[in-house]
Amino acid sequence: MGSNEAKEIAELRLKFVAKCVVTGVALGLSIWGINHASGLSETLEMWVRKKKKPIRVYMDGCFDMMHYGHCNALRQARALGDQLVVGVVSDAEITANKGPPVTSLNERMIMVQAVKWVDEVIPDAPYAISEEFMKKLFEEYNIDYIIHGDDPCLLPDGSDAYALAKTAGRFKQIKRTEGVSSTDIVGRMLLCVRERSLNDKSNHSSLQRQFSHGNSQKFEDGIAAGETRISHFLPTSRRIVQFSNGKILRLAREFGDFLLVGIHTDQTISAKRGAHRPIMNLHERSLSVLACRYVDEVIIGAPMEISKDMVATFNISLVIHGTVAEGDDFRQEKDNPYAVPISMGIFRVIESPLDITTTTIIRRIVSNHEAYQEFTFVLYHSVQKRNEKKAESEKRYYENKIFVNGD
């Protein structure tokens, strides 16, 4: 028993004695006697422990092409309990229910583990919660509640994936984050490919409507992996999956006691990488990086070049760069944006734990283009018979959804 717990039990005993004295109940027990009354002591200990038992909540998901919508869902789930256990659905289950994932289970696990609100991760979680798995959650993982968003999560046959949890009275609901989805991100990336290969304005507007719900701004936005300064600054503008950065940010954090992440503006990235980049805008990238447990602070709109003023202003002691990046400007002799930290002897290159960049993710999507086309077609048009019930349920959800009025 910890000292705080023992102290609380002792205080409860004293309150019990005081109450007895005030009410005139003569129990004939001294404080010494209470200390040795094992029955009462055990009862009080059990009461205190029960009172302090943490509420454990469970949330599962595919977490493919992880974005700030996933992070916000995890944040909301964590707020409903004391400990958040996250189940990451297996590759096979995703393929069977939604289409092939872009990122592997190992990569998705790394992303989820890097989120600051996550306490524990379960790999190879099932897409649908069966009675057997729910029992395992309750008995082995001590889960109190199962969490999911207020959007419908239906199996191909139209049944509710969380029906058993709802029937058991152990289900809680959170709000879906509107305006972003993994499918939307895939669409943005396919648009990049289409823009580069066809440069066709009509195709641009068609894809824009299909994947971004009429929001053209999203297609000119993108993701920067973040720059990290730990009192270390690690510049990047490269990764589509921000927490593929999770491992490199963790490694960077180990070099100091404060990790500062600089995030480039959309204009800076477009000038460097082309008009089709970034995939996510500055706002989206900032929210994603801020959700990482290894990040202490961010610089929103960080310049591409690290100057002496920047080093002095932010008290940067080390600038870190990974070996995997979209470009190799950190290796060039001329116009190197890291020339200042290199000359100061505070620049270090560390081995990137994963070989993932925006470009490699796009290549994965394009290499499985037919599968992804089928996936997005089913999600947005729902013409296959097995998804008719799912489409109708999703349609009702969006028709009945109440949005906040800005007036």
Can you walk me through this structure?
The chain is built from 18 helices and eleven strands. Mean pLDDT is 75; it is low at 16-37, 200-231 and 235-244. It has helices at residues 3-22, 31-35, 38-51, 68-79, 91-97, 105-113, 131-139, 163-167, 182-198, 201-212, 245-253, 266-273, 282-290, 308-313, 339-343, 358-367, 369-381, 388-400; strands spanning 56-61, 83-89, 120-125, 145-149, 171-174, 227-229, 232-233, 260-263, 297-300, 318-322, 347-350. Helix 9 (182-198) runs antiparallel to helix 10. By secondary structure, the chain is an alpha/beta fold. 45% of the residues lie in helices and 12% in strands. The radius of gyration is 26 Å and the shape is globular. Strands 3-2-1-4-5 form a five-stranded parallel beta sheet. Strand 1, helix 4 (68-79) and strand 2 form a beta-alpha-beta unit.
Characteristic terms for this protein:
alpha/beta, 3-stranded mixed sheet, single chain, 5-stranded parallel sheet
Q: What value does the Rg take, in angstroms?
A: 26 Å
Strand order, largest beta sheet = 3-2-1-4-5
Query: So how many helices?
Result: 18
* General form: globular
Task: Please provide the ordered H/E string of secondary-structure elements.
Answer: HHHEHEHHEHEHEHHEEHEHHEHEHEHHH
Quote the average pLDDT. 75
Give the N-to-C terminal Cα separation.
55 Å
Q: How large is the share of residues in beta strands?
A: 5-15%
Strand tally, please? 11
The largest sheet, given as strand count, sense and whether it forms a barrel, is: 5 strands, parallel
Broad structural category: alpha/beta
Segments where pLDDT lies below 50 for 5+ residues? 16-37, 200-231, 235-244
Helix content: 40-55%
